[in-house]
Amino acid sequence: MERMERLTLGLGVAVMAIFFLAVLVLATGFGVDVPGCVTDVKPFERDTFFQRADGRYELHVIARMWSYQMPSVVLPAGAEVDVYLTAGDVLHGFHIDGTNLNLMAVPGTVTYGRVRFPKAGEYLIVCHEYCGIGHQQMMGVIRVVQQ
Ligand code: CUA
Predict the structure, then answer these.
(1) What digits encode the pLDDT tens for the residues 23-43?
(2) Phi and psi for 63 in degrees, rounded to 5?
(3) Same domain for 24 and 58?
(4) Strands 139-145 and 49-53
(5) Which atom of ligand 1 lies nearest, measured to the CA of 66?
(6) 63 and 129: one domain?
(7) Alpha carbon nearest to ligand 1 atom 1, residue
């Protein structure tokens, strides 16, 4: 082997060793890690649905293969809901049929939308982002009743 070949090979191995050690030191010594799936932002400490004020509600939803983790939601007609959404695994969609709410559920990120339900009825929630073999079964419902 030529002298320059040996030198180049040695340099390559040395650089790889330095990078490997850097990753090892960062992962063990400094707690650097890949981001988790579910955010620890306040709304997602637990799944919740509650009334904020008269006619105003807040809903926290975690989308997972292949359902929405959310409590049973029954609202009076005319209610306005702040929806906070995230995903526990992969990208999902969150569209409430008959409304203008259409959000993406992104792992590690919170998306937000406000929606009003002027009329009583059952509002279907559908996932509009292909998320795996059970995608077409991923749905939920919000019930709105006349006061
Ligand atoms: Cu979740 Cu498609």
Answers:
(1) 888 888 877 665 555 655 666
(2) -90, 130
(3) no
(4) unpaired
(5) 1
(6) yes
(7) 92
